[in-house]
Hints:
By secondary structure, this protein is mainly α.
Amino acid sequence: MTPANLVHHGRQSRRTTWLCLAERVLGGWPTTLRAALLLLVVLVGVGTVLLAVVGVPGTACATGLGLLLQAALRRTARPQVA
Length: 82
């Protein structure tokens, strides 16, 4: 252990142990899997905040509008086949 990691009585800080645990667990994962996990965490966080701010009806409305926009953008981005 380095002196920076030591706190009172020679014990590691909780923050350091959590970072080491996260590095040990996620270190062997492929980059795409880590990115997918990060995206999932962000989407769940945004959904939770949206639920807290606007409630269930507002979240349902925002989700529906997002899905409609995604479908419309996919339709316009699709190449025309003759």
